[in-house]
Specification:
This protein has about 100 residues and is mainly alpha-helical. Helices cover about 90% and strands about 0% of the residues. The N and C termini lie far apart (about 70 Å).
Length: about 100
Amino acid sequence: MRQERIDLLIQRGRLLERISMQRAQLARDAQPISSGLQTADSIVAGLRSTTRYLQDHPHVVGATVAVLVVLRPQRVWRWGKRAFFAWRTWHLLRQKIAAL
């Protein structure tokens, strides 16, 4: 009985060592995707904060819907495209300036 217990403890130690090595290997293998996962986490956090803000401020949603109803959809679409291109240009300029 005592020898069986010792054998089990030795086997347990080997298994724990093997688990530790596998965790280290997994951490090394997952390193390249960590930046992508961080980006995804920040996007999810941004969506959650936006949702929380809109739930706390329903008048913003109402005002946006009213603007969309009053203005023609074509005009809203045109201004939306302009705003997107302006934002993208600003973002690219910030990246280039930061690289210098």
